[in-house]
# Entry
Amino acid sequence: MACFLVPAGEAIVTTVVQKVVENREKKVGGERTKKTGLSWSRKLSWLNKLLWGGTILLALEHIWHGEVVPWPPFLTAMNNPAEVAPMLNEMATIGVAMAIFVTIIWAIIVMIVELRAKAMPQAKASPAGGGE
# Structure
């Protein structure tokens, strides 16, 4: 019904955080992380893209099924007071689970990038031929 609102809320917060981090990085002179050479604002942009993309797809799916309409109260569950409790339950369970899952996937992506960047200098330092 309205599970997409939870990742949308997280996307709004992380977008604001990304903008603040970008401004601070510009003031410092484009600070990059030591391991990967990527800024935190760039890494946060990945999270934002995942969250906004999922939110848009879920919103379209809910529109397709008639659960979201272009007139107030916008969520069809809000028309009937008996449907509000199940809607809030869905947001608290499914919506929160989706937001957490997307954030975990993003953290794994960042971790992989960090580990690969850490391993790259070691691979370059070892001689290719190995013998004299």
Summary: The radius of gyration is 21 Å.
